């Protein structure tokens, strides 16, 4: 959920109550706090969505990319995200007569550039069909790896997303697309995600495929070297278990695109 709300603010849950999510990797934790009132929901997170399996690509210097992949370190965060969603239509019924639509907005603050960017999103359910989309601006600042803060490069860019899915009782299927366009640059990065989840009693089992088309270098885990590869394909696997009605735990593979393992805990109260 933490990744979703930083990409599409309308994904923020509006159900009454609080939610606290933590994703644990090495000695670090990514957190997201969510609050719903019944019709309106808000979320805040100091963690980034870039360089996660379900998020857009990140920007980094070649040396930083190589060192980070070699050491299996996650992409450093330099942003805070505040997102809010409101349920505008909530029609209950059976089949296609059931319709829900939420609208959302978000603000991102970059602690390095001290700049703010904004975004909008929508999320809907029509019977068993789910759909959504978002558009937001973002920025990333890089320092030269050899001279540090003396030379800074700032990237300003726009991200567009859309998704469509199917919820069939115990099976959830989703197709998502993310496109990233840098300002004053004709090149574009695109990510396609195919996700399937199986709900069995208290378990949620998820598998996904990510295809990224971009000009940036790819890290080969066999040779331990960077290589030129326009299309990059990755796979994800995860299992979540609801311990009680207020606690869910999970284990994931390749969430940070490092071929790593990570753990999660979500509290509802």
Walkthrough of the structure:
The protein has 269 residues and is mainly beta. The chain contains two helices and 16 strands. The chain has helices at residues 2-7, 62-71, and strands at 17-25, 28-36, 40-45, 79-91, 99-110, 115-126, 129-144, 148-168, 171-182, 188-200, 203-213, 218-220, 225-227, 231-244, 247-253, 261-268. The strands form two sheets. It has a 14-stranded antiparallel barrel. Strands 12-13 form a two-stranded antiparallel ribbon. The mean pLDDT is 94.
Order of helices and strands: HEEEHEEEEEEEEEEEEE
Q: Give the overall form.
A: globular
Instruction: Compute the average pLDDT.
Output: 94
Helix-and-strand structural type? mainly beta
Number of helices: 2
Strand content: over 45%
> Strand tally, please?
16
Largest sheet: 14 strands, antiparallel, barrel
In percent, how helical is the residue content?
under 10%
Question: Any idea what the radius of gyration is?
Answer: 19 Å
Distance from first to last alpha carbon:
16 Å
Side-by-side strand order of the widest sheet:
1-2-3-4-5-6-7-8-9-10-11-14-15-16
* Residue windows where pLDDT falls under 50 for at least 5 positions: none
SSE blueprint:
Elements: H1 2-7, E1 17-25, E2 28-36, E3 40-45, H2 62-71, E4 79-91, E5 99-110, E6 115-126, E7 129-144, E8 148-168, E9 171-182, E10 188-200, E11 203-213, E12 218-220, E13 225-227, E14 231-244, E15 247-253, E16 261-268
Antiparallel strand pairs: 1-2, 1-16, 2-3, 3-4, 4-5, 5-6, 6-7, 7-8, 8-9, 9-10, 10-11, 11-14, 12-13, 14-15, 15-16
């Amino acid at each position: 959920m933490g990744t979703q709300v930083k990409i599409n603010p309308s994904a923020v849950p509006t159900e009454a109550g609080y939610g606290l999510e933590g994703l644990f990797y090495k000695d670090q934790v990514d957190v997201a706090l969510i609050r719903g009132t019944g019709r309106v929901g808000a979320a805040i997170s100091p963690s980034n969505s870039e360089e996660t399996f379900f998020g857009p690509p990140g920007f980094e210097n070649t040396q930083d990319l190589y060192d980070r992949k070699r050491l299996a370190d996650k992409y450093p965060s330099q942003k805070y995200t505040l997102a809010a969603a409101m349920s505008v239509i909530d029609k209950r019924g059976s089949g296609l007569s059931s319709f829900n639509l939420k609208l959302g907005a978000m603000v991102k603050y970059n602690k390095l550039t001290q700049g703010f960017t904004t975004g909008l999103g929508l999320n809907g359910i029509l019977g068993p069909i789910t759909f959504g989309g978002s558009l937001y601006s973002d920025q990333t600042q890089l320092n030269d790896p050899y001279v540090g803060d003396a030379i800074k490069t700032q990237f300003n860019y726009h991200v567009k997303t859309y998704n469509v899915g199917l919820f069939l009782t115990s099976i959830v299927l989703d197709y998502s697309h993310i496109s990233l366009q840098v300002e004053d640059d004709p090149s574009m990065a695109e990510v396609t995600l195919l996700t399937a989840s199986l709900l069995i009693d208290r378990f949620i089992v998820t598998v996904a495929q990510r295809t990224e088309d971009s000009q940036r270098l790819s890290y080969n885990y066999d040779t331990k070297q960077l290589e030129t590869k326009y299309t990059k394909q990755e796979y994800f696997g995860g299992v979540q278990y609801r311990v009680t009605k207020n606690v869910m735990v999970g284990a994931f593979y390749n969430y940070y695109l490092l071929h790593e393992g990570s753990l999660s805990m979500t509290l509802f109260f």
